[in-house]
Amino acid sequence: MDVRLDPVRYEIFFNKLDQALNESQQVVRYLSGSAIVREAGEAMESFYLPTGEGVDIAAGILMHFMNITRCIHYMADNNYGGEDIGVFEGDQFINNDAYIGGMHCPDTCLIAPFFQIRQFCTLLSLLLYPLLFSSPSPHLAHTSPLLWHAFRHALCLQI
């Protein structure tokens, strides 16, 4: 089967994909309750191959792109794709262990597999500072510790 890739259609597709990714990163940034995410842009949205190679990355701080790669390698090394855990449509994995993938402890990443016609194609990811869960309103500040404790020890958990 001879499948040829039209370079013009490829560029149109990639530019649309890149624009959507950058826009979603900015939405996360501006809706965040964290000053670090909102002001410094410490949020990243990206597409990765199942091997951990970055396909397209929208990052406020580019150093975080290896965090997701390390998480994907950890998942592969620990047989997340095997029958005992499995990677299925609708799954999401969360990690904030700096030894698995992170520049520092507060980094939290969310990885979701993407399927096309029931075939595992790529991974979508979001990395941000966990203070995203904090509230910009002092009246709602009491909600932050509960969410912080829920996610502070997430070791590439399947959720």
Short description:
The chain has 159 residues and is α+β, with helices and mostly antiparallel strands. The chain contains 5 helices and 6 strands; from the N terminus they run ααββαβαββαβ. The protein has one domain: Beta-Lactamase.
Provide an overview of this structure.
This protein is α+β, with helices and mostly antiparallel strands and 159 residues long. Mean pLDDT is 77; it is low at 132-153. The N and C termini lie far apart (39 Å). The protein has helices at residues 7-31, 35-40, 65-77, 98-101, 144-151; strands at 43-48, 54-59, 93-95, 108-116, 119-128, 157-158. It has one domain: Beta-Lactamase (2-Layer Sandwich).
- Give the SSE string: HHEEHEHEEHE
Helical content class: 25-40%
Helical run tally: 5
Q: Spans of 5+ residues with little confidence (pLDDT < 50)?
A: 132-153
In CATH terms, what is the fold-level topology? Beta-Lactamase
CATH architecture: 2-Layer Sandwich
Structural class: alpha+beta
Q: What's the domain count?
A: 1
Largest sheet: 6 strands, antiparallel
Spatial ordering of strands, largest sheet: 2-1-5-4-3-6
Total number of strands:
6
In whole angstroms, the N-to-C terminal distance is 39 Å
- Determine and state the CATH class: Alpha Beta
Beta percentage is 15-25%
Task: Write down the overall mean pLDDT.
Answer: 77
Shape: globular
**Cα-atom Rg, whole angstroms?**
17 Å
